[in-house]
Amino acid sequence: MKKRILVTGGAGFLGSYLCEKLLNEGNDVVCLDNFYTGQKENIFHLIENPNFELIRHDIIQPILLEVDQIYNLACPASPVHYQYNPVKTTKTSVMGAINMLGLAKRVKARILQASTSEVYGDPEVHPQPESYRGCVNPIGIRSCYDEGKRLAETLFFDYYRQNNVDIRIVRIFNTYGPKMQENDGRVVSNFIVQAIKGEDITVYGEGLQTRSFCYVDDLIDAMIKMMNTEKEIDGEPFVGPVNIGNPQEYTIIDLAQKIKAMTNSSSKIIYKELPSDDPLQRSPAIDLAKSMLDWEPKTEVDIGLQKTITYFREKINNGK
Length: 320
Ligand code: NAD
Ligand code: UDP
Hints:
Bound molecules: nicotinamide-adenine-dinucleotide, uridine-5'-diphosphate
CATH superfamily of the largest domain: NAD(P)-binding Rossmann-like Domain
Shape: globular
Oligomer: single chain
Strand order of the largest sheet: 3-2-1-4-5-6-13
Structural class: alpha/beta
Helix content: 25-40%
Number of domains: 2
CATH topology of the largest domain: Rossmann fold
Distance between the termini: 39 Å
Radius of gyration: 19 Å
Order of helices and strands: EHEEEHHEHEEHEEEHEEEEHEHH
């Protein structure tokens, strides 16, 4: 059935894919964004669609809308961007969650939170299952994001228990793909852009820290599945949190070498200082997503990277 769906952060990297997919499924989509890291370019192709609406708004402020579902993605996701104005980042996660949960409560909409693997901090358990409570520094340079997202999860569960708000939570692990911003600052886009331009590839620390990389299409499928699941666990609705990511794990130096080889680049790999609190090891346990959502990533990293390389090559060659 056709639904009216609000996507906050809808002009961002993940949000723009989500808006497009929801429109293709026949829904009305309201995209809300303050364009901090989002770009009009990401959603230009949707503007003419009569089922698409764009609202410039900051979720730190309340808003009155009538919708059936809310995907709450508004929040800068790259360390460079979320550390630029850390107080604002916390406000976006916390006040944004309160405003969106208040809206969901008023109009009885189901609301899904885009949470993050960062809630596990620098994990002592590997791979990370949802039951792991994390190891987060409350006063470090990543804390505005990590603690903001943790508190947002708390708010989601309190609105669920106290006000019966219909919630869902996904914990997203590093996701990449075409349409990431060239200057986004995250590792996949940095390395690809550097390799294509023949600039030094900047590995932070010794590059022995690990991450696992999920292709954007797989992630969007999982988000929509989680939003619409009616499954139960022990007689209660399955609301999450559920990890979404690709468990295949790479060291950052391996990723740099892989991208250098795939782009046939003459770039030099150089080492820069490791930012503080940079998690050493990260990989999702996805048993819950497999069993409850019948989901696992389909896109091999080599295929996803190739698509992303092709995207950036065209963009850079066209001087866009
Ligand atoms: P992104 O920076 O491309 O998108 C975030 C969007 O939110 C942007 O369009 C930005 O302008 C908007 N925004 C930021 N603050 C806002 C505010 N106060 N009011 C309204 N809009 C605001 O990042 P992304 O990669 O698309 O991430 C989307 C969501 O997914 C974020 O909540 C992020 O924390 C979460 N997430 C992403 C990843 C990933 O690897 N991409 C991993 C974990 C979690
Ligand atoms: N990183 C790097 N060089 C870069 C950008 C990132 O070595 O140019 C490293 C970063 O230190 C981290 C990993 O790559 O260990 C992933 O960084 P990203 O910012 O993509 O996401 P994070 O998982 O840290 O939030």
